[in-house]
Design a protein that fits this description.
The complex is a heterodimer of chains A (300) and B (641). Chain A has 300 residues and is α/β, with parallel strands linked by helices. Chain A contains 11 helices and 10 strands. In chain A, strands 1, 2, 3, 4, 5, 6, 7, 8, 9 and 10 form a 10-stranded mixed sheet that branches. Chain A is elongated, with a radius of gyration of 29 Å. With 641 residues, chain B is mainly α. Classes of the chains: A alpha/beta (300), B mainly alpha (641).
């Protein structure tokens, strides 16, 4: 026999042995394997029966407030899971259009071209006002400046006022910290405080409220803006604007207050509707106040 | 022959003689195809990546050209011709204000500083005694019995006294004043309407002194007011011009989106699931208008504002000239002197630019076409990367490119000495047990994820660098003291640390590959160990060391996470006036801008395409570095003996 034929005979014998062993093992363990598979399938199916509400959008809402609302909602007895992603208000609309979000949270109103884009994808957006937010201007706590007026705030953030001595502080260049372009707070601030002028080119773009708070807290010459819920961070001092400190009492006198929204594609239904009703209920209002936002009820 | 006993019969022989695929495809060939296909799949994936990048980014230049065309046709360029003098005026005003405040601070400065310090100390004290303070507030709010409230107040007084004794007060206060201040601060209760007497006195004195100082410099203040107000009519005119231009631009953009929108709405309607949805979508499509815009006619109102602008400028120039003439000739404080000197230089330039702006506006033509090369030049050499603006988006990569370049050069300068020296030491000089320790430890750095480096940069390196820069005996270093803790040097340090393992391993391998014969020949000729290393072995390994450096550089240029977290994210060309100290400023990078902005751009918009273009630029840079590395390696290679 040629070596090749010998090898093939050997391999057939080996193969036969292996097959018989496999048959033994399979017949013994088959029942075990089948039962495990069946149980896991049952388990998986029961897991998939739990709905997940996907929430995408604003960092202002999504970092603290929406997770707290979600916790409260779950503790109130609703068995849903939440998937919250907070990359900036603009991502709410891109995700709603793509169908990867059930609720879009936004700290600004939807833009014309964004709603047209969503319409072309078949999603007609419904806007629900869920809370009011006040944008606080914060400086380092060692900064001697006691207050600013609106013109000075606009001048500082647009780069016209370059030095702290111009507004009554110790002489030094002003370090401006803003959010980045995907943030709704960024755009809201531009329209509320800066008369739609562009930010100074020397401004530094941070990813979220917490980062701005950390940087301003560490930089004596820093100034930035954060949502009301973040103004208690260490090292920060809230500056009164035109004499008004941002709080629930001054919601109508403080110049930088804005409504925040949930957007849903079409009418909300099922668990999404239950969640939105919870958010607007007194229990949700409690949570809103605790986190540091202003519930709709208080804003009337 | 043994074969003949089991010789196959005639039909089977035919079967066996036929060459089938399965006989040709034996083990050897299978292995060859397996490895060959892996290589070709890798190349195919690379080609696919290049294809997708080019597909998304290549339409950028026509899109940007169209945007610049609208920028011109809708009159925004016209308005920006006015913008330049306006922003210069703002800068001049800023200098004047700074000079004025420096003059005021000369007389009133001491008292204002004392008042500020007292207020800051009372803030600090309030923070430190937060808990007793809250208890007092609760007792008052409940309301508790007078004994409870008094007890809470007493506890607060004790805590405040203890904290006040620990406060550091500067030498602006004499020792007795410091004692009085501490005692005064300790008496503050949360429901006090006015600060304690000592602090109130400081506030009043500071206010009086400040008013007095301003009184002495009324002439200066008046001149500044005249200077500021001179611009207001021009600014109003500019705002009205901007409104007209923005309205035309909005229509132009709508028109451009209209055709796409109608097509998309109609296809969505055709695919609609319910008749109501279909009707709704068709209605939306019908409501979108596609009438062309006559730009020349629409821009006419803007051009008609030119005579008004000229008239206002004719009033503006004498006003600011008279204001400049009223400025004090000799300022007393040093900062004021410097600012006023710079003001005078910039003022002349400003007047020139104002005159130029009128000429430019006269010669402006809204119908002048924008060539494709202008879009290319505006992208590659443009100094503004402004996105999401309500006015106009500009995509110029120079700020990002400068940031990337400076960070990479810093990192390279830091990493090369460390890695090459470590490689030489490990390979040539270290004893075997030292080698056992050094090599794995350095290579372990490669295993640390880049996000962890970013985190270390934010929390440790930033603060550490700032503390070092505050040391008095280091102030001769340009750029010290550092203003921002997130800056290019911070990113450079971390990137150097990340690149050292790559460069170290490759350099060490290059040194290892030098034939033993070289070292033996050198030593047999009587050279010492150091001479052998530096005169023979390193030159022989030079090509490999260069390759290692360039590969490390490629890794540094492409790093995203660290620069996004640590480099400061300022999208502006850094200020080179400090010389080498420019690296202590924040900047943004090519890689960081993609990571930061890609999350929110809508697919297919000009911003999306601009970001892909930046990606293509990065790709080209990496290819260039790799190509350069190979050329250098070829050039320096010594043929092996």
């Amino acid at each position: 026999m040629s070596p090749l034929q010998e090898t093939s005979k050997e391999s057939t014998r080996l193969g036969a042995c292996l097959t018989s062993i496999q048959h033994c093992m399979i017949s013994r363990n088959l029942s075990l394997i089948l039962s495990i598979a069946g149980l896991s399938l049952l388990g998986l199916s029961s897991l998939s029966a739990q709905t997940t509400i996907r929430v995408r959008g604003s960092d202002t809402l999504g970092a603290k407030l929406v997770p707290q609302w979600a916790e409260g909602f779950k503790n109130a007895g609703h068995g849903v899971g939440f998937d919250v992603g907070a990359e900036g208000s603009s991502t709410a609309f891109t995700n709603l259009a793509a169908g990867t979000a059930d609720i879009g949270m936004s700290s600004r109103k939807v833009k014309e071209d964004e709603s047209t884009y969503c319409k072309t994808k078949g999603k007609f957006l419904k806007e629900i006002n869920v809370a009011w937010d006040l944008i606080a201007i914060v400086v380092n706590k060692n900064n001697p400046v006691q207050g600013l007026n609106k013109k000075q705030v606009q001048g500082i953030f647009s780069g016209k006022i370059k030095d702290w001595s111009e507004v009554g502080g110790t002489p030094g260049a002003i370090s401006i910290y803003t959010r980045n372009t995907s943030s709704g707070t960024y755009k809201d601030f531009m329209s509320m405080a800066m008369n739609n002028k562009d930010y100074a080119p020397s401004s530094q773009k941070m990813a979220g409220n917490e980062q701005i708070a950390a940087e301003v807290g560490k930089n004596p010459a820093g100034i930035g803006y954060v949502g009301l819920a973040y103004d208690k961070a260490p090292g920060l001092k809230v500056i009164p604007v035109e004499g008004a400190i941002p709080s629930a009492a001054t919601i109508h006198t403080y110049p930088y207050s804005r409504p925040t929204f949930f957007y849903v594609a079409g009418e909300p239904e099922g668990e999404v509707k239950a969640f939105i009703d919870y958010v607007l209920s007194p229990a949700g209002d409690e949570i809103t106040r605790k986190v540091g936002f202003i519930p709709i009820a208080d804003s009337k | 022959m043994a074969d003949s006993s089991s010789a196959p019969t005639a039909p089977v022989a035919q079967l066996l003689k036929r060459r089938t695929v399965w006989s040709w495809l034996n083990g050897q060939r299978l292995i060859r195809f397996f490895f060959g296909s892996n290589a070709s799949i890798t190349i195919a994936v690379l080609v696919l990546i290049m294809f997708f990048l080019l597909r998304e980014g290549s339409m950028f230049f026509p899109t940007y050209q169209r945007e610049l065309q609208i920028y011109r046709q809708a009159g925004l360029e016209y308005c920006d011709l006015v913008n330049k003098p306006l922003s210069e005026h703002g800068a001049l005003l800023s200098r004047l204000n700074r000079a004025f405040m420096a003059e005021v601070a000369l007389t009133a400065g001491v008292d204002v500083t004392r008042r500020n310090e007292a207020l800051l100390l009372s803030q600090q004290l309030a923070e430190q005694t937060r808990h007793p303070r809250l208890l007092v507030e609760d007792a008052i709010a409940k309301p508790g019995s007078p004994e409870e409230i008094e007890a809470a107040r007493q506890r607060l007084r004790q805590a405040s006294q203890a904290a006040a004794d620990k406060l550091t007060i500067s030498s602006a206060f004499s020792p007795e004043e410091q004692k009085t201040l501490r005692a005064a601060l300790a008496t503050i209760q949360p429901d006090d309407q006015t600060p304690p007497a000592f602090v109130q006195n400081l506030v009043t004195v500071a206010a009086t002194k400040d008013a007095q100082a301003r009184q002495t410099h009324t002439g200066f203040q008046d001149a500044i007011d005249v200077f500021e107000e001179a611009l207001e009519p021009v600014e109003e005119l500019h705002d009205s011009m901007k409104e007209i231009a923005l309205a035309i631009k909005a229509e132009a953009v709508q028109l451009h989106m209209a055709e796409d929108a109608i097509a998309m709405l109609r296809t969505a309607a055709a695919a609609a699931k319910t008749p109501e949805e279909r009707d709704r979508l068709n209605q939306e499509a019908a409501a979108t208008s596609t009438q062309a815009i006559d730009f020349t006619a629409r821009v006419q109102p803007l051009k008609e504002k030119l005579p008004e602008y000229e008239k206002l400028i004719a009033e503006y120039v004498p006003k600011i000239q008279s204001a400049a003439a009223q400025l004090p000739k000799e300022a007393q404080s040093k900062p004021a002197v410097a600012q006023l000197k710079q003001f005078r230089v910039d003022f002349e330039k400003h007047l020139q630019h104002v005159r130029q702006s009128i000429e430019q506006m006269r010669g402006w033509d809204s119908a002048k076409p924008v060539p494709l090369t202008q879009a290319l030049v505006a992208f590659v050499f443009g100094g503004d990367w402004i996105t999401n603006s309500t006015w106009q988006d500009f995509y110029g990569v120079v700020p990002l490119f400068t940031g990337s370049l400076l960070i990479s050069l810093t990192a390279l300068l830091l990493a090369v000495p460390f890695s090459v020296a470590a490689a030489i030491y490990t390979n040539q000089i270290a004893s075997p047990w030292e080698q056992e320790i050094i090599k794995p430890v350095i290579e372990f750095i490669q295993a640390i994820p880049s996000v962890v480096f970013g985190f270390i940069g934010i929390s440790v390196v930033g603060d550490g660098l700032r503390e070092i820069s505050d040391l008095p005996f280091l102030q001769w270093i340009p750029g010290f003291p550092i203003a921002e803790r997130l800056n290019m040097f911070n990113a450079g340090c971390l990137l150097a640390l990340m690149a050292v393992p790559t460069m170290f391993s490759l350099a060490e391998d290059a040194l290892q590959n030098v034939p033993q014969a070289y070292a033996e020949a050198s030593e047999s000729l009587g050279a010492s160990k150091m001479q052998t290393i530096f005169r023979v072995i390193i030159p022989a390994a030079l090509s490999g060391i260069f390759a290692a450096i360039l590969l490390g550089f490629g890794r540094i240029v492409g790093e995203t996470m660290v620069v996004l977290l640590v480099a400061g994210n300022r999208i502006a060309i850094p200020d080179f006036s400090d010389g080498v100290g420019v690296v202590f400023q924040p900047a943004h990078t090519l890689t960081g801008i993609i990571a930061q902005e890609l999350g929110e751009v809508s697919r297919g918009s000009s911003h999306w395409q601009a970001l892909f273009m930046v990606g293509i630029l990065l790709f080209a840079i990496s290819l260039g570095i790799n190509f350069g590395a190979r050329q250098i390696v070829k050039r320096f290679k010594i043929a092996s003996a």
